[in-house]
């Protein structure tokens, strides 16, 4: 079926939504001085990296499935326009986050966060869609190496998207193209292996568990929840710890 969703992918994304909410809640509690939590190291930092890695890997995996299905019903122009529109739309959502954080937190506002990255990744992914699994993995390793090299140098603000930062740069969220696009390519390689032509290559040995359905719901609406959860967390902190948020301003 062209629109068939795979519960295991929605489940993985739903789990990432939960861990995202947990980390951002911990971050906000520390940021506003409610609880002294170490969000820059230890378990919480590992949780943040695991969450971002899951989302980004699933961008590549889901793209492979989507692209294979779209290629069966669209010509080359229609296929290109589909992902240009989708990429620019998500990048535009990232610009909304930039504007909001610049307005309220100008010292650490988000210049190139995860939504900016995902938008750009979707624009670039069609260029790699016809590569086989081996070439995708080679390209992913090249991105990881290039990302490491970029992290060793400093540069002007216009290169932020690439992974080269000014020395004084600070941001609440920073997900540059390098090395993170390498993880998108890994997701695309896995998609080619296990979901060739947009179809699951082999049936799962376990049926969809009932407990997974709420998480699958979160996974299907992850973008909406991304925008909604921070205001909800801040509202909850304002109710439970009066003066924490208002005192900050």
Automatic annotation (TrEMBL):
Keywords: Membrane, Transmembrane, Transmembrane helix. InterPro entries: HGSNAT_cat. The keyword Translocase does not apply. The chain crosses the membrane at residues 12-35, 47-68, 88-105, 111-129, 136-157, 177-195, 223-245. The keyword Ion transport does not apply. Residues 5-231 form the Heparan-alpha-glucosaminide N-acetyltransferase catalytic domain. This is Heparan-alpha-glucosaminide N-acetyltransferase catalytic domain-containing protein. It comes from Methanoculleus sediminis.
């Amino acid at each position: 079926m062209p629109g068939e969703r795979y519960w295991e992918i929605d489940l993985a994304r739903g789990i990432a939504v939960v861990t995202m909410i947990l980390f951002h809640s911990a971050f906000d509690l520390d940021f506003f001085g409610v609880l002294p939590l170490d969000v820059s190291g230890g378990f919480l930092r590992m949780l943040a990296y695991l969450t971002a890695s899951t989302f980004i890997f699933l961008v590549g995996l889901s793209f492979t499935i989507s692209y294979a299905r779209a290629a069966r019903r669209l010509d080359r122009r229609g296929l290109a326009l589909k992902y240009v529109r989708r990429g620019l739309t998500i990048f535009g959502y990232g610009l909304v986050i930039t504007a909001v954080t610049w307005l309220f937190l100008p010292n650490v506002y988000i210049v190139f966060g995860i939504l900016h990255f995902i938008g750009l990744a979707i624009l670039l992914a069609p260029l790699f869609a016809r590569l086989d699994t081996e070439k995708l993995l080679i390209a992913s390793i090249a991105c990881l190496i290039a990302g490491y090299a970029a992290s060793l140098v400093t540069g002007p603000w216009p290169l932020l998207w690439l992974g080269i930062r000014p020395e004084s740069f600070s941001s609440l969220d920073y997900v540059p193209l390098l090395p993170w696009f390498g993880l998108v390519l890994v997701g695309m390689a896995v998609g080619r292996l296990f979901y060739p032509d947009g179809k699951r290559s082999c049936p799962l040995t376990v049926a969809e568990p009932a407990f997974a359905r709420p998480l699958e719901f979160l996974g299907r609406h992850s973008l909406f929840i991304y925008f909604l959860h921070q205001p909800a967390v801040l509202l909850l902190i304002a109710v439970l710890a009066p003066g924490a948020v208002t005192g900050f301003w």
